[in-house]
Amino acid sequence: MVDNHQKTCTHCLRPAVYLDRVREIHLCREHLMAFVEGQVLAHLEKTNLPPVIGIAFSGGKDSTALLKAFCRIHNDLPCSFLAMTVDEGIEGYRQDTIRAAEEICRVLGVPHHIIRFQDVFGHSLDQLVAGSERNACTICGILRRRALEILARRLEIRVIATGHNQDDHAQTAIMNAISGDEKKIFSGFAESDWYARRIKPFARVSEREVTLYAILNGLFHDLPECPYAVSSLRGEVRTLLYRYELKHPGSMRNAARCEEEIRQRLGGSFTRNPYQACVSCGWPGSGRVCQVCKVLNDTWTGEDKADHI
Amino acid sequence: MRLILPDQRELQLEVNQRTIEEILIGMSIDPLTTLVSRGGEIIPEDTIPKEDDIIKIIQISHGG
Q1: What percent of chain A has a predicted confidence (pLDDT) above 90?
Q2: Which chain B residues are closer than 8 Å to A216 by Cβ?
Q3: Is the pLDDT of residue A249 over 90?
Q4: pLDDT in tens, B34-47
Q5: Tens digit of pLDDT for each residue in A53-83?
Q6: Do B64 and A6 touch (CB under 8 A)?
Q7: Which of A70, A120, A209, B49 pairs as cysteine with B53 (C-beta 3.0–4.6 A)?
Q8: Which of B1, B7, B32 should we substitute to test contact with A (largest number of A Cβ atoms within 10 Å)?
Q9: What residue ranges define each of the domains in chain B, with the CATH number in brackets?
Q10: Minimal C-alpha gap between A80 and chain B (Å)
Q11: Where are the domains positioned within chain A?
Q12: Tell me, what's the pLDDT at A193?
């Protein structure tokens, strides 16, 4: 007889911790962890990997869960790994999360490297935001990507794993559709020897599963939210997708996979633009002047501009 | 049942054979944005709690 007060795992009858609505099964702690780690391993096994890869590690729940998953399956991995953190310089917020990131790496025994906006661009995010009319998240996103690339080059890392999960992919796909920006879906840029290749081992794992994995490993801490976080299109799309997922299980997964499947069906028939070298810093980018230089030029002029190469 | 919300507010509710999912939806909380804990153990949201259970709701994602 089914005990509705204590659900049990479909596989082993231990107490369940998770209802998988798509597969209509319950999972216990062990089977949920095995599922998440299996998805990560499956992603890595179909990827050509160098001897060492970097894990983009913010200290948040997604990248923490990814780091833990790598540690738990390291015997099965074809590569070793290290953690890479960007300190954007956000007073009253980032110090605590950086300390948490350092502590997690110490406990897990993972080599940890940190790069700071202040050192690379000459200014913290707080200073850049104060001197710009641009949205803080726009500045941060552009510069964080560059900072991570600079750190990767220093460490000779050619592949970076990020903690993006299935929900992130689904949100991005819907945002691309809403904004009608087919270039983002069908073109993009050609592979570059300059930039490290990005991989997303949680691409088939939902945000709930990632969070639960972090909780079950004792790694979920209710860290403060970034003070620059604002309501955005992504937030609205997230709410919409959760509503659909509740009524139609699998919607999130389907939205996450649709772009990928369309691209696969198109094969190589869509145009990939070559990068252009930025006339200011020389880094490959989308135009004559790269986004990083545009942000820095908009914010700081003349002698204030940092040498970020 | 005592329900502890992510903002630490505590509510005393009658279960009436409802699942936690149904209780959350009744409070306009999307259960997919949360995880559920009972006595420090995570449980699925389709569990029917007992009247003397203390249920804690954990928010998994913020705005932005």
Answers
A1: 62
A2: 42
A3: yes
A4: 999 999 999 999 99
A5: 999 999 989 999 999 999 999 999 989 999 9
A6: no
A7: B49
A8: B32
A9: 2-59 (3.10.20.30)
A10: 30
A11: 29-272, 275-309
A12: 78
pLDDT one-digit tens code per residue, B17-36: 999 999 999 999 999 999 99
Interchain contact, B32 vs A15, CB within 8 Å: no
pTM given for the model? 0.91
CB pairs under 8 A between A and B: 72
Chain A residues lying within 8 Å of B63, measured CB to CB: 229-232, 235
Return the residue matching tokens 């490993």.
A217
CATH number of this structure's domain A29-272: 3.40.50.620
For this complex, say whether ipTM is above 0.90: yes
pLDDT at A114 over 70: yes
- Whether residues B44 and A17 touch (CB distance < 8 A) is answered with yes
